[in-house]
Amino acid sequence: MTPLSHRLILFTLLIASASCMAQQGQMPPRIDVAAVTGADAKTAQAVEHALRDQHDKIDAIRRDTDAQLAKLLTPAQLDKLHEAMRKNRPADGPPQR
């Protein structure tokens, strides 16, 4: 793998981790992108912006999905669905591809 491939994998995992933690009502700890990747300050700032942007998009999708489900299910049914989804989520994060 090339260094770029390693960085892409790292950033993909960071986004997935942030998504999972956001679903659980948690924010991931801030990562010093420059220190982890050796990127210059400008690049690290751009990466952090991209990660925040992705997090915001995931939150918007989640809110939209919840609104759609609320139109289809009763509150009790929605609670049961959310509980089943939480139980079905792997303890160590999203499935690996």
Word description of this protein:
The chain is mainly alpha-helical. The chain has one domain (3-88). Helices cover 74% and strands 0% of the residues. It is built from 4 helices and no strands. It has helices spanning 3-23, 33-37, 41-72, 75-88. Helix 1 runs parallel beside helix 3. The longest helix has 32 residues, at 41-72. The chain is elongated, with a radius of gyration of 16 Å. The model has no long low-confidence stretch (mean pLDDT 79).
Question: Which terms summarize this structure?
Answer:
single chain; 97 residues; mainly alpha
Give a summary of the structure in a few sentences.
With 97 residues, this protein is mainly alpha-helical. It has helices at 3-23, 33-37, 41-72, 75-88.
